[in-house]
Amino acid sequence: MGAAVTAVSSNGTYTFTKPNRDSITLLAGLGVEGDVHCGETVKHRSRVAQDPTQPNLRQVHLIHGELFDEVREAGFDVTPGQLGENVTTRGIDLLALPTGTLLKLGDQAVVEVTGLRNPCLQIDTFQDGLLKRVVGRDAEGNIVRKAGVMSVVRTGGVVRPGDTIAVELPAAPHKPLERV
């Protein structure tokens, strides 16, 4: 099976989780139509408090469904949309993509991967102990963030569960993802 969208989610109000939808519409340069994080400048509360004029590099949040399988094995029950993502995927190693990767979602929409999601303490409010499952350390002691990737919309379009995902890597040398 190739890479595919398994769920899409959005919410017009600030809550940790986002309800699943039949489809979402991506707007070029803005994000998910009707989503609280849609806009050219930052919308995440902590970033707005720092500098509300910063560009919004977190317009669309993608999480790999394989993460839900991993945390389920540790006793956590997490389903699409519950960690606040807009697009849940399967069959693509999102965390291994370099910065600047283009993802074509379905027939038209294209997002550019900007970096890793930096999970916050709200994850433990959602399910106690979950934060340690989505942020850890590797053998060398480096922080490993597993809660998905952030992106900006380059080409708008409708995205639905079942849509295929095509990957276009940027020109080498590739820059590893960092938190945004």
TrEMBL record:
Annotated Pfam families: MOSC (PF03473)
UniProt superkingdom: Bacteria
InterPro entries with a match to the protein in the record: MoCF_Sase_C, MOSC_domain, Pyrv_Knase-like_insert_dom_sf
Domain MOSC residue range list: 18-168
Transmembrane regions: none
Molecular function in Gene Ontology: catalytic activity; molybdenum ion binding; pyridoxal phosphate binding
Protein name per Swiss-Prot or TrEMBL: MOSC domain-containing protein
Organism this protein belongs to: Streptomyces finlayi
Organism lineage: Bacteria, Bacillati, Actinomycetota, Actinomycetes, Kitasatosporales
